[in-house]
From TrEMBL:
Protein name: Family with sequence similarity 160 member B1
Pfam family, any one: KELAA
Region (Disordered): 199-229
Organism (species): Callipepla squamata
InterPro entries the record matches: FHIP (IPR019384), FHIP_KELAA_motif (IPR045668)
Length: 717
């Protein structure tokens, strides 16, 4: 109480006293702080019971005022004094000793405000960046300490300054030898500083370049002792006189201590306080984006960043329940790493494992965004670490297991990761993990060269429909990703030689089939009522089909019309008219699929432009047409599965539907229920067959639309 009264009285005296020149006022406040250590006998009283916080705040205000009164970039006498007398070094020593209790918080706050409020660049000065570097080492040493908030604020302001001037990061890359020298000389520096001696290199306010920055005091050349101003003569005191115990410097010689700013932030990402952890993640996001190659290399090779990212991914993945509903994995709300807050009690859609799932997806999102923002060297290193230490070591055994429940859950998680990834570099590592890096044409004996790829493709035709559907959806989303290797590895590498073509001249029988460029008895597309609104001459169709690749010399415009007619008709006529129901429901016609097919085709054409693929296929003369054709494992499994579907539904469809009374009304009711146009009601007989007929009809319309769009694209100049 008496100390607080003294502080109030001190403020009153300062308010009534005549104003002093800024430098004298600045020195007065600094002397008041140093005299406290000389005169105090109670070193256990908290710093908040002293005048130290007030004096530090006054010093900051004076420095800001001085800068505002001067030309931009000009260093004033108060700032000169702070640099020349190494005040930041002294404060660092007092903060490290935490004398009086709470002094570390005050020092961290002073550094943070100084760097944040002063506009002129301070970090290039040796008597700024050196104590800043030392203070960084004190941050994150112990979690959940009272100084955690001040520590993260200080680290974040340093990161922000480096983001503004990336070259400054070179001041914060320490070699191990320099760190050892720094450890040996720390106490000497601190005592010299507190004695007011300027035995080390003197900062006169002129910034130095990074390459000139000495990394340790023991490596610096001694300079002549400068004459100190008279006001500072009575500031001489020693560590013993201050009753400050010089604590040992934090260890800086372990293998991963070259980039202490990163290491301190990594420690704080483990804070039990979520706000601190998120701030630490934000700081790391700033650091990985710095363009300096030396910093990127140091960050990935001399810190634990890659290990932290992957180890936490692995831990959170293993914390997931062995069985999760694939629908829950797919539909859990969009994850943003900075907003990983979830209350089970407030969630009406909670399910077992939701908290763990959100935590995993949130951290994966952070890794993805970190790699996306990172400098190229750092991005590649982090992505490779995720592939090796998480995808391969943790996910692959789960995807290769034989338990159907485990396969389904792990495939659903892989599907979610495929959908969620946005970083090009991480996407590449994910693609190589799933598909391997092989680009040679496949042969039947070598389809198992990448076991995970083989297993996942086999799962597309698994005995469990749930596993098959989930794996197919995973491949569907994978094929939509903007990476050339996906389509090439799964399909195109087996088609380049074009040995799927029957390369032989037309025989007389073939020639008789063609009359005037058309198959005998064929109906022209423009004459077919089904295609009235979809012909290439129609204005609407021209708008839909406006983006097309160039015409191939081997595919002239006038040779595909009859072929596409055959293909489209073969798909549309696969389901008998008696089994069709889409024309009874508005908005489910073939034109809907045509628009969707064109949109997908156009979007993928735009994606393919960046891959610089040739505009036409390899000429047949250069292809090995004698080699046996193998479509590849992926297409083989899909075609086998499709063939069985057609056998199971169309083979005896007409016979089966004739045995169902009121087939057409029931079929229409099932379609409306599937579309949500009719409420669920009494169970309908043969509902599985009716649903299968509807799905087959829609599937055939989709295939027909794709064929038509591809024909138009290949025949439009």
């Amino acid at each position: 109480m008496f100390s607080k009264f003294t502080s109030i009285l001190q403020h009153a005296v300062e308010a009534l006293a005549p104003s002093l020149p800024l430098q004298e006022d600045f020195v007065y406040h600094w002397k008041a702080i140093t005299h406290y250590y000389i005169e105090t006998s109670d070193d256990k009283a908290p710093v908040t019971d002293t005048n130290i916080p007030s004096h530090l705040e006054q010093m900051l205000d004076i420095l800001v005022q001085e800068e505002n009164e001067r030309e931009s970039g000009e260093t004033g006498p108060c700032m000169e004094y702070l640099l020349h007398h190494k005040i930041l070094e002294t404060l660092y020593t007092l903060g490290k000793a935490d004398c009086p209790p709470g002094m570390k918080q005050q020092v961290l706050a002073f550094y943070t405000k100084l760097l944040g409020r002063i506009r002129q660049p301070l970090l290039p000065h040796i008597n700024v960046h050196r104590p800043v570097q030392k203070l960084i080492r004190l941050c994150g040493e112990v979690l959940a300490t009272p100084t955690e908030n001040e520590e993260i604020q200080f680290l974040c302001i340093v990161c922000a300054k480096l983001k503004q001037d990336p070259y400054l990061v070179n001041f914060f890359l320490e070699s191990k030898l320099k760190a050892m020298a720094s450890k040996e000389s720390t106490n000497v520096i601190a005592e010299d500083m507190l004695k007011g001696q300027d035995s080390m290199a003197t900062d006169t306010g002129q910034p130095i370049q990074p390459e000139e920055s000495p990394g340790a005091a023991g490596a610096e050349q001694m300079e002549k002792e400068d004459e100190l101003p008279q006001q500072a003569d009575d500031l001489s005191f020693s560590l013993d006189e201050l009753n400050v115990t010089s604590l040992p410097e934090p260890s800086t010689v372990c293998p991963n201590q070259d980039y202490n700013l990163v290491n301190s932030l990594l420690n704080l990402t483990k804070s039990p306080d979520g706000r601190i952890a998120v701030k630490a993640c934000e700081g790391l996001m700033l650091l990985v984006s710095l363009p300096e190659p030396a910093a990127a290399k140091c960050l990935t090779q001399s810190t634990c960043l890659c290990e932290l990212l992957t180890d936490r991914l692995a831990t959170l993945y293993r914390a997931l329940p062995q069985s999760l509903d694939p629908l829950d994995i797919e539909t859990v709300e969009a994850i943003n790493w900075g907003l990983d807050s979830y209350s089970h009690k407030e969630d009406a859609t909670a399910f077992p494992g939701k908290r763990a799932l959100i935590s995993f997806l949130s951290w994966f999102d952070y890794c993805d965004q970190l790699i996306k923002e990172a400098q190229k060297i750092a991005a590649v290193a982090m992505a490779k670490a995720v592939r090796e230490r998480f995808f391969v070591d943790v996910m692959e055994p789960q995807l290769m297991q034989t338990s159907e429940i485990g396969i389904l859950t792990s495939t659903a998680l892989l599907h979610r990761i495929v959908r969620q990834v946005t970083s090009d570099v991480l996407l590449q590592e994910l693609v190589y993990f799933v598909l391997g890096e092989n680009r040679e044409p496949e042969t039947l004996p070598n389809i198992n060269t990448h076991p995970l790829r083989h297993r996942l493709i086999e799962h597309c035709d698994h005995i469990s429909d749930e596993i098959s559907i989930m794996t197919l959806r995973m491949f569907e989303h994978l094929l939509q990703k903007p990476h050339e290797h996906i389509l090439y590895n799964l399909v195109l590498r087996n088609l380049e030689e074009r040995n799927y073509i029957e390369y032989k001249p037309l025989c007389q029988e073939d020639k008789d089939v063609v009359e005037n460029g058309q198959i005998a008895g064929a109906i022209d597309l423009e004459e077919d009522p089904l295609f009235t609104d979809l012909s290439p001459d129609n204005t609407g169709a021209q708008e839909w089909l406006s983006v097309s690749p160039p015409v191939s010399p081997e595919h002239p415009k006038n040779d595909g019309k009859t072929e596409v007619h055959k293909i489209v008709n073969s798909f549309l006529c696969l389901v008998p008219d008696e089994a069709k129901s889409s024309y009874h429901v508005e908005g489910t016609g073939y034109d809907t699929y045509l628009r969707d097919a064109h949109r997908q085709f156009r979007d993928y054409c735009l994606i393919c432009l960046r891959w610089e693929w040739p505009g036409s296929p390899r000429s047949l003369e250069k292809c090995n047409l004698e080699a046996s054709f193998f479509e590849g494992h992926f297409l083989k499994v899909l075609f086998d599965r499709m063939g069985r579907i057609l056998d199971q539904v169309v083979g005896d469809l007409m016979i089966r539907i004739q045995r169902i009374p009121d087939f057409t009304p029931k079929l229409l009711l099932v379609r409306k229920r599937l579309l949500g146009l009719e409420p669920e009601g009494p169970l309908i007989d043969h509902v599985t067959l009716l649903e299968g007929v509807i799905v087959l009809e829609e599937f055939c319309k989709e295939l027909a639309a794709i064929a038509f769009v591809k024909y138009h694209a290949s025949s439009t100049p």
